[in-house]
Write a structure and sequence with these properties.
The structure is a homotetramer of 346-residue chains. Chain A is built from 12 helices and 13 strands. The first copy, chain A, has 346 residues and is of the alpha/beta class. In chain A, strand 1, helix 1 and strand 2 form a beta-alpha-beta unit.
Chain lengths: 346, 346, 346, 346
């Protein structure tokens, strides 16, 4: 099965940190050996430091790991980070500089021109920015790789399928995002029970800029962003897990409905441990996708698309769904690490 | 205070029928004297026939009204209809033919060229279609007037404000609609708890066509529809009352953000009993409008708009909210009746 | 209409503070003239300091009141307190010592033997403890009066009705409590969406001891507690407002079902502004009371009881409901102030 | 691995029928070969007849099974029934008479003196009633075995642990039951969003009588019911899966808190495929059990108990939780079938 890597989690007690612990429980390549969290938690066993909010119990393998402060050195080969953006920038750089591959779920470095912003199936070749990054920042063995905002992950894959074939010109996206995306305690129940909350701080700009980098072309001068425009309105809804994106897209060349569906379905998955069998599942059931029924498709790593129809202003409309803390966060980070191993960067 | 009218409710036991009963409880012009519902209910006192689902108790004035079958004659001067569209067409015509003004919340006649589709503040002059209707259909004193789909009501008012000043060219709307919009039993809890439901049967086409008629111009030849296009994606969310619309709009002439907000705020309300003080309330709080907090603005008759910003593809984006069973159904019908009285049609 | 009193709110920006603002908006006897909150809020106008979470807008009359620190003197005749218990004890005493009548919703003084714990309809005569209190604590004109825990308020009234006639011996109560009871931000949405939360810190002991004092007899030596035992299990459920209590009661003397219902219905309301027409409403509809439908009965001041049946272990079982932030908090405090005025204490 | 049995599902398209399909997907002993449902569904492939409401897709192995009417013969060795009680009595007897072992989740036969009402870990020896049943009803090879009401399953196991050691005298139970327990469409969202529903038709009597039979002793004359009394109040809450029971228990002999917990923990699981590793898990975390976090413990087959404390009226109180459509329905039926095979009845 090959080498096993010792993994450290930054922000281990948060909701994404917990997902890391859950997803890595029986992973063939990774074993969690270090957990770092805020000073309040440091020094306690993980089982005590962490208010576990996922179904079931804390995985046995991490219960007794003593939480450390968030600073290098850590007893591990790779670092997964789910730090809040307020502290991520400085801390992740410190880890990279200390020689750790940093696989980050934070927003801090996503748009830096020398940092890969990866959806492994879409732009895996962007990992080659790592060389540029090491040179520019003077990192030796370490580096930083990021995965996108959880809402972007829901619609960027079908967009990628259309963009590579027909060219995308403009995209309207309206998101209905799950409460787990805000962490814990996160969204107050008084704000979301019997309610829709029309504002997620900082979210709309992120959703509007990240897809162009992900779908951009890697050149000698770096990533040339894809030349389409995204307009985003983002809402919080009363759903535990699973972000829904309502999408209209204008293409640069004409495509039939059959073409559109076929391109999405044909977009290949990868042959890595966390890759789902189907990357983009397109359903023609009129009432799908639904967060409750579809978020766990492909163990939470499949993007489910439905209601693909011609639009009367743009070319097509569709609804896309992804599991925001798996594909939209911890799961994508793990997949990125698997990709980096397969490409020899780790 | 002037004359009082005796009112009959068709579909009296449904969720909209119950709203009629609630809204008319202390109305200065109307008094409910007749309640009609399906054969299953006919013959029973309303308090027995009706599974009351609104806060509080069945209004004392209607508890003992014996429910009748849905057919003329009824013991009343005006008929409010909230019949399911499957039976509305035939039944409402029968009542109009029998001489009753029929103020309908059903979709059956909304797009008929001789039937007014009214939002009283926007296109009250369309009531003049009634003459054409009577002539064409051979109605004597009776007629049919309709109010729009509940989702349309949330965004048509701000659109009207922009259209009359700047001209609207294209509109993308994504709705997040409340469960009360589906009636009772309506949406199964298993379909909406911890979920977003991406399909509402027949809704998207209605939302795409009704606004053009409402904002159309009355000419000698009838209503000339407004020449803009609406693209709609409609979702059900876990909210009891209050439809939210996420909107982007492309205008025909340029407008500053201040212009846009000012036009919405300046759109006048009417001087009728059910008119809210403010027809369109525009808020600049970043996290408003919210169904839980804003649906009851203006006793449920105010449209609340927020998050008005320039859009990066179209001209502007905003979020609009209305109470779907008050402004979006029973309340609008009552307001239409008040308008028709003020204009001498009743 | 008599004299108007100037009222100050301690903890004005919290969920109960907001209810005070809402309930006093058009009150004939009270006018809010002062708002106190934490240092973070002090110095700002209420409209800015307060994240308003109730339906509708901040009442016009309080929008511009500048929030002050929570310490005497305050520009008012009466103080309503909804301070967290951690600070209430010291602060409320300071206000009482400074001469203010303190009508408190906090738990700090509820069980002090010289402090009235009031449900105005049940034990209004306990206000006479004020003399004892002034003497003991050396208060001059000021005093402290409290209202009970919000969960207690739901079942103490029907219990009082049974106790005065038949004597209560033992009571099992299981509560299902609304999220607003925890304040804002309060319950995290991740803890309550698709969930029941089986623990409310400190709640079960409060629910087990307060009713005996409320139903106790005032003697020269103070309140002799009623000699029954309450066993409480308390749960948080996904409801915005309205606490439900599932109750079994063992009586000291025999009573028919008709007796039990009749005693509850016969328990008199008061003739004060905030008194509901019916204090205890008993319904025989099998599926009532429900928080969504019954919490606003009597403007949130009526206790609604249903499902009164013989029990197969104890004597009777029933379900009781009250609005936790109105009758269970701000509304009861306002009613207590009205009572104190009527009895000459204010 | 031993023989594989061909299984037929009665009521295959309902929520419990769907759970059967899900749980049997990779079962080592069972393979679904027949699906029966109402006439409306008969003749269609299962994937078309069934509105699948569980996470993920319909298992591949059953998608194409053509649904048959609900009558013998069926192409299978064993029949699992989740028929509504209105049709179960007659139909299940017809299948038993036709020679099928009928493992039923319906309430029809549960209290018949010759029909085992099984929780496999508790009263597996009651299967010996089958001989009596065959004799009395003239069944040849067929028979009927039942599992309890889903709410009973949550508290009967900890009760069994206490009863066999200390004797149970009286039990108060208040249930908070999930919406999936009512099937589909089942509970209307308008009845449960922002609400607690205090009535479940027919539930309280079932909850009050079934435990005594389950914990009863098998004698030559049949099952002698356990001599304790259960008082039940049953509520529906807004939870997808997982019934919560709030319990107080009075014992016949004294027991320390440690004894009580130890007896629950010591109650053995079985060595069957669907048995969980731990039958009764007792947690001392103050805020557990929770439906969202604990319903899937032991793949939905573990009973989770928490908040075990001395009670101030009875001896002890605790909170118990089970997954209502797994342990409370389909999972228990499957376990019963495994038990019957191991005992040679199938």
């Amino acid at each position: 099965m090959g080498r096993r890597y010792r993994v450290g989690i930054l922000g281990a007690t948060g909701t994404v940190g917990q997902r890391f612990a859950q997803l890595l429980e029986d992973h063939p390549q990774f074993e969690i050996t270090a957990m770092a969290a805020s000073d309040r938690s440091a020094g306690k066993p993980y089982s005590e430091a962490c208010a576990w909010k996922l179904s079931g119990r804390i995985p046995a393998g991490v219960r007794d790991i003593v939480v450390t402060p968030i600073e290098p050195p850590m007893d591990c080969d790779i670092v997964f980070s789910s730090l809040p953006s307020s502290v991520a920038r400085e801390t992740e750089e410190a880890f990279a500089r200390a020689g750790y591959p940093v696989i980050s779920n934070s927003s801090s470095y996503r748009m830096d021109e020398d940092v890969p912003l990866l959806i492994a199936e879409i732009n895996g070749e962007h990992v080659r920015l790592i060389e540029r990054q090491r040179e520019k920042r003077g990192f030796d063995r370490g580096f930083i790789v990021t995965n996108p905002n959880c809402a972007v992950v829901s619609f960027a894959p079908p967009l990628a399928a259309l963009h590579r074939k027909f060219g995308v010109e403009s995209v309207f996206v309206t998101t209905m995002q799950a409460i787990s995306g805000a962490g814990y305690p996160g969204v107050a129940s008084l704000d979301i029970t019997d309610n829709v909350f029309p504002y997620i701080a900082g979210e709309e700009p992120k959703v509007e800029i990240e897809a162009q980098k992900i779908l951009g072309s890697l050149t000698d001068g770096g990533v040339v962003k894809a030349d389409f425009t995204v307009s985003a309105q983002c809402f919080r809804v009363n759903v535990v897990d699973g972000h829904v994106a309502s999408v209209r897209v204008k293409l640069r060349s004409s495509a039939t409905l059959e073409d559109v569906v076929a391109e999405m379905r044909a977009f290949p998955s990868l042959d890595l441990h966390s890759s789902p069998e189907t990357f983009i599942e397109v359903t023609d059931e009129p009432s799908r996708p639904q967060p409750k029924l579809d978020r766990d498709n492909g163990n939470g790593m499949t993007i489910t698309v439905g209601r693909v129809f011609p639009d009367n202003i743009f070319d097509y409309r569709f609804v896309a769904l992804s599991h925001n803390t798996v594909r939209g966060a911890a799961g994508s980070a793990v997949l990125n690490a698997e990709l980096l191993i397969s490409k020899g960067y780790i």
